[in-house]
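REQUEST ID: PR-0412
SUBMITTED BY: lab tech R.K.
PRIORITY: routine
TASK: structure prediction, single protein chain
INPUT:
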Amino acid sequence: MFKKRSMDEKWDLLLSEFRSLGGIADNVCQKEGEFGRGVFSIEPNLRSRIYTPSKLMIKKDDICLEGNQIRIKQDKGYNKEIRDFFNYYQDHFSWGGGGKEIVDSFEKGLSSFSSNLKKLIKKFMLVDINQRHIGVWDEVIVREFLNARAFQFNNSSMICPLLELVNHEVTSLSFIKGLDGISTPNYPPINGEITHNYNNKSSINRFFYQGFFCKETIVFSVPFSIFLEKSAIHFICKGKEINDDSIKIERSGSSIFIEGLPIADANHSRLPSYYFEEIFRRIDDVYMPKDILSIILDLNISVRKNILDEAQLIENEVSSMFSKIINHEMDLILSSD
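STATUS: complete
OUTPUT:
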């Protein structure tokens, strides 16, 4: 069904098959742009849209590596038409269209980090690079490739052909989830690249989760433990990223734990102080020094400077990207101090 063709012909064939299976791909093409390979409008006066129906979504856990190709596991219940489309898509536009090489290069860059830098990242950013890279290297690359591209749909991690080619941009609108599929935002006509916002993450977490640098607007604290002498209490932050407005506070003996703490937000400069005030309110029987937030900010700057010093000892594109992210986060913290 799929003979040898030029890339433009392959793209046209891909869209034809995609549409025949219920997908929508209006006024879109693929080319290189500011964020690397992305999806662009063709006619600037027409609306552009990609819609991937649920029938074309493939569960991440149903995917494997066969030889050097990404395939749907043989024992999973997808028909031949879906399998053929998915194979063609992966071979020419996703895994086999440069995706494997991009992830391989990124993970090799991480693996070249010094042992000291890896220890700091594990302790303060909760990412264990050595653990991440245990196993057969090709299987590591496939896992990270799929993790970075999966969408959450109906409580499952799904690979969404075509939709996953759309790049993330922090100021863009979020993609639209419906009952039967996921669509790019309902933009007016665009002359240029079509982007959407994947989800809310810090720049650090975006880097480790999806392998690129974006100037995200929020920064979260590294893990810390501060002893509050007047209350004889250890105030402990686990250093996790917070994805909603909930504040989880736990008490255990002489310790109080919080999951995470936003310490800077370019869009809401008062968010850290408001968040901390709410923590104060909920543990009003514990004395908190008035300058505790400043102490936490200083601690976060100090940790990031140490990490930056180590990162700058390594010369590759991944460490350079990582250094830019650390500088970006420090700038946001300092601007909100």
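NOTES: The radius of gyration is 23 Å.
REVIEWED BY: pending
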